[in-house]
Amino acid sequence: MNSDYDKSSSNGIEKSLPPDEYLNKINEVRTLLGPLTEKSSEFCSDAAITRYLAARNGHVKKATKMLKETLKWRAQYKPEEIRWEDIAREAETGKIYRANCTDKYGRTVLVMRPSSQNTKSYKGQIRFLVYCMENAIMNLPDNQEQMVWLIDFHGFNMSHISVKVSRETVHVLQEHYPERLGLAIVYNPPKIFESFYKMVKPFLEPKTCNKVKFVYSDDNISKKLLEDLFDMEQLEVAFGGKNSDAGFNFEKYAERMREDDLKFYGNTTVSSTSAHLTNSDSEVSDSEMKQLEDKEDEKIKNATLQSPLDTTKTYT
């Protein structure tokens, strides 16, 4: 695949392959996929196949295998059937939400606040993440395939991290939402997170790492990245913007999501496949593994605390 796919500028906008190479590889993938159900075909557009090819550096067989795994996952997990009412409990504190604004390139923006974690449900947290990803994708304009994440680390400490959830998050995003991330802005992370990031970085795809930018409110050079990427009049004050009205309000956001569910899916009824995965049920089922999870998290966090801290501010 064209080496341009391995390049990520500061704004996360990547160059694309020549049309002929796209078409040839797309057709090869379609041949290897074989006959598809009507449902599966919805997720195998030329743009979708192109993203899987990009994720596997143009290797047709690897891209096909990856796409087949995603089709299998979607058939079992049914992300398109998750509705707001299924995950509203997870959303109460605004730990992940879609911003009212886009960046200058029209990309959907997801705001994430790790310190606002409000549940211990592994299944519930992943289900909520999937809902947010699906919603962000549905709100992308026709000319965009990627989104931007704004990750606010205000109030963060290591107790807000679950190693198990972090590991599954990376797996779901890299394996089933390839090339959906344009840029991830890590805003004002504490030193302890910088050290943790160094530990998990080897588990991330190199191209994903190149899309992670550390930005500090007291550093003019890194702040310029936000100014180049956003209309500062629209950006939240929490990220150095001037929009004091932006931010998270649960009631207003719930109404937005219900409207989106109705617009994109035609109803807001809790799906039969997810009805049994209520918040209380997922909390109970997860509690059976909680002790083992806590022990694993503790080991990782202790290792992080004992590792040397990197004092540099630039991660690209």
UniProtKB/TrEMBL annotation:
Residues 303-316 have a biased composition (Polar residues). GO terms for molecular function: phosphatidylinositol transfer activity. InterPro entries: CRAL-TRIO_dom (IPR001251), CRAL-TRIO_dom_sf (IPR036865), CRAL/TRIO_N_dom (IPR011074), CRAL/TRIO_N_dom_sf (IPR036273), PI_Transfer_CRAL-TRIO (IPR052578). SUPFAM superfamilies: CRAL/TRIO domain, CRAL/TRIO N-terminal domain. Residues 84-247 form the CRAL-TRIO domain. Residues 274-316 are annotated as: Disordered. Residues 287-301 have a biased composition (Basic and acidic residues). PANTHER family: F16L1.9 PROTEIN (PTHR45824:SF6), GH16843P (PTHR45824). This is SEC14 cytosolic factor family protein. It comes from Arabidopsis lyrata subsp. lyrata.
